[in-house]
Amino acid sequence: MQTPDIQNILAELTRSIGETPIEILPIAASGSARKYYRIVTEKRTLIGTYSDNVEENEAFLTFSKHFHDLGLNVPEVFTVNGEKTCYLQSDFGDDNLFAHVQKALMAGGFGENVIQLYKQALKHLVKFQCVGHQGLDYSKAYPTERFDRQAIIDDLNYFKYYFVKPHEEIDFNETRLGKDFEAFADFVSQTPCDFFMYRDFQSRNIMVKDNELYFIDFQGGRKGPLNYDVVSLLYQVKAQIPQAVREELIQYYKEELKQFVNPEEVKFDTYQPYFVYLRLLQVLGAYGFRGLIQKKSHFIESIPYALKEIQALAQTQPLNDYPELQHIIQQFSKIEQRYQIIIQPPTGKLTVTVNSFSFRKGYPNDFSGNGGGFVFDCRALPNPGREPEFKTKTGRDWEVIDYLMAKPPVHVFLDHVKAIVGQSIDNYRERHFSYLMVSFGCTGGQHRSVFFAQTIYEWLKKTYPDIHLKLNHIERKIIEETGL
């Protein structure tokens, strides 16, 4: 199928409302397949949206009109093309609540101004859930009208298939896990669900303009429970909201909710920890799919924060009634270390990540989102692993180092690697590139690959003291970092 000329369609839509497009600028892609553009006219700016998912578009268009008519702070849709693949909506700018959170974290923690923004968001949320729910045409909801038992199972399976299974370090019994999922869904699906559930109510979807909040990306909304959206906002893992602040904000939310419904009647506190688990498991599934599979670095960067959050929850609210799920969470400590390598370096420095790995286990993930770098195959070189005295040793032990350094082919190989890698580093620094990955693979990821990765890492430390270096012995689960 021929790719549509999106910018031309948006230009025609802009002219159809009596305005002339001066400039149409693509906006950086998010986690979805939708494409966004900022359209500059003589009067104002607009947001142009394209998606070939017409059902999802119809959900957004229906919800947006309903909420806008009720006076809720959502985009106004000005026009839609006949195919319902493109539409123009209000532009609330680029500032969002998450940007304010980041500034607060850099300044040392949550201040009263950020807490007030969260309270304002929760005040709006109550209106979405209770006022916005009234008269809403849920038949247009996509992909489902209601957050029901099947939706809960789907979220749990999303976690299983896209996060648990790609991590072979995690062992589990799939039959027992399935029974836990069924029991978990049976319990959580009893939550009262006669409210609007935004589904992705998090700080990146809350725009800040002229000290007022505006809300976007609610096309996944449906009829559902109250807890889910509160958790989505307050347990957004990279926001790192302190638990004491969370408790203050939850209390504020419940006071606002009393205008419409008694929190005790809907057992808000009873179900709250289970929705925290459900949301964290769902986002880990999303991080696995968008990050580990689709290689989008933004999602991979969130994984260590989510792991930390869910392990902390398991300490205070263990899932004793769901032992196999609890068993999986207890094993997250096995995979924590591999994600420490993704912490971002200081701005302006070239980061070089050096990996050792086993070809049997597959190539290293490139957490930068750049698609990978050099991969050197060490399997043609002398193998210490074939010598009985080295079976329990690694390429970091002096006995293995002495063995390899006595072999002439090793020095030829090292010289070639240094020449190739050094040439790229010199070029990347001149061009102000930010990332390079250099990986060494052997059969088991224990001897040759470890030796060469360690040797090149040490050489880079001496030769390029101004770069940010990361060393990751994947099979050995050893991480080092320098140049911070």
Give me a quick take on this structure.
The protein is of the alpha+beta class and 484 residues long. It is 45% helix and 15% strand. The protein folds into 3 domains: 85 residues, Phosphorylase Kinase, domain 1 (2-Layer Sandwich), CATH 3.30.200.20; 243 residues, Aminoglycoside 3'-phosphotransferase, Chain: A, domain 2 (Alpha-Beta Complex), CATH 3.90.1200.10; 139 residues, no CATH class.
Structural commentary:
This protein has 484 residues and is of the alpha+beta class. It folds into 3 domains: 6-90, Phosphorylase Kinase, domain 1 (2-Layer Sandwich), CATH 3.30.200.20; 97-339, Aminoglycoside 3'-phosphotransferase, Chain: A, domain 2; 344-482, no CATH class. Helices cover 45% and strands 15% of the residues. It is built from 16 helices and 14 strands. The chain has helices spanning 6-16, 54-69, 97-106, 112-131, 149-164, 174-188, 227-234, 243-257, 268-293, 297-300, 303-316, 323-330, 333-339, 398-405, 408-430, 448-463; strands at 23-27, 35-40, 45-50, 77-80, 86-90, 195-197, 206-209, 212-215, 222-224, 351-358, 374-377, 435-442, 468-473, 478-482. The strands form 4 sheets. It has a 5-stranded antiparallel beta sheet, sandwiched between helices. A hairpin with a 4-residue loop joins strand 2 and strand 3 (45-50). Helix 5 (149-164) packs across helix 9 (268-293) and helix 7 packs across helix 9 (268-293). It is globular. The protein starts with 5 loop residues before the first helix and ends with a strand. The mean pLDDT is 93.
